[in-house]
Design brief:
The protein has a single domain (about 5-75), classed as 2-Layer Sandwich (Translation Initiation Factor IF3), CATH 3.30.110.40. The chain has helices at about 15-25, 45-55; strands at about 5-10, 35-40, 55-65, 65-75. The protein is about 30% helix and about 35% strand. It has a four-stranded mixed beta sheet with strand order 1-2-4-3, covered by helices on one side. By secondary structure, it is of the alpha+beta class. β3 and β4 (about 65-75) form a beta hairpin.
């Protein structure tokens, strides 16, 4: 999937992946896509909840080699 910015949140525990995702999204224009890579298993539920609360679209959520990879589109 194409993306405009990547955030490496590996090694960070809740709530840091979400806080850094929020900050990274602030730097993007509407419609741009952020790729987030995290090692925190809790980030799977957190990203979905964050998307629901903020209106940003969670385009995909996958596990790759013990990393959790998310693509989020800014509203």
């Amino acid at each position: 999937m194409e993306f405009d910015k990547e955030l490496d949140a590996r090694g960070l525990s809740c709530p840091l992946p979400i806080l850094k995702t929020k900050k990274a999204l602030n730097d993007l224009a509407s419609g741009q896509v952020l790729k987030v890579v995290s090692t925190d298993p809790g980030s799977v539920k957190d990203m979905q909840a964050f998307a629901n609360q903020t209106g940003n679209a969670l385009l995909s959520s996958a596990e790759e080699n013990k990393d959790y990879v998310f693509f989020m589109k800014k509203k």
